Amino acid sequence: MSEKVKTMTGEPARYNAVAILLHWVIALLVLFMIGLGLYMDHVPVNDPTPLHQLHKSVGIVTMLLIVVRVLWRLTHKAPALPKDMPAAQRMVAGGMEGLLYLYQIFLPVTGWLMVSAMAMPIVLFGLVSWPLIPLPQSVMDSGTLAEIMPEIHNWLAWTFGGFIALHVLAALYHRFIRKDQVVQRILPRHGSEH
C-alpha cells in the first residue's frame, strides 16, 4: 500500500511518514524527560548538575520538534476517524489532541521561563549556549517568578503525565475493545505494507 491510500471519503487513511516520525520521536523524548524529571525531583533545582543541563538540552530539542510538529499538523490534514465513532468520543478525541499539543508547548516554555527567571545558563549538550528569555529587571529583582515557576512546571508535568496515561488508555481501548483502525493510523508501517 502506498502512503497515498485514501478512504472512500477522500481523507488520508493514515498519518504521513513525517507526522508518524515526529509523533514517536517526541513521545520517546517526552517519556525520557518525565523519567529524568522524576529522578531530578530529588536534586535541588539550583544545583547545576549535568542532569539539569541534559534535562534543559533535551527539553529545548523537544520544544523545537513540537513547533515543527504543530506547523506540520496545521498544514497537513489528519486522517478521518471511523465513521461509526460516536460524536461524544469524537469531541473528547479532539479535545484531548488539543490538550496534548498545549501541554507539549507550555511545559518546555515554562521550563525555559523557570531557568530564565533563575538566570541559570542553558548550554545544549555542553556545546551551544541557548539564550534565556529576556525578563524585566524588576521581575528578576523580586524573585517571585523564580520562586513560583518550579511549582508551575512541576504541576504541569504531573498533569501532562495524567493526560498521557489517558491517551494511552484510549489507544488500548481502540485497539483491543473497539478494534477499529484509530491506532493503526499513527503506527509505523511494517515492511510488508510498503
From TrEMBL:
Membrane topology qualifier: Multi-pass membrane protein
Phylogenetic classification of the source organism: Bacteria, Pseudomonadati, Pseudomonadota, Alphaproteobacteria, Acetobacterales
Originating species: Bombella pluederhausensis
Required cofactor names: heme b
Domain Cytochrome b561 bacterial/Ni-hydrogenase: 14-188
Keyword Oxidoreductase: no
Record SUPFAM superfamilies: Transmembrane di-heme cytochromes
Membrane-spanning ranges: 21-40, 52-72, 99-132, 152-173
Coiled-coil parts of chain: none
Family named by the database record: Belongs to the cytochrome b561 family.
InterPro entries, per the entry: Cyt_b561_bac/Ni-Hgenase, Cytochrome_b561_oxidase, Di-haem_cyt_TM
Compartments, as annotated in UniProt: Cell membrane
Protein name listed in UniProt: Cytochrome b
Keywords: Cell membrane, Electron transport, Heme, Iron, Membrane, Metal-binding, Transmembrane, Transmembrane helix, Transport
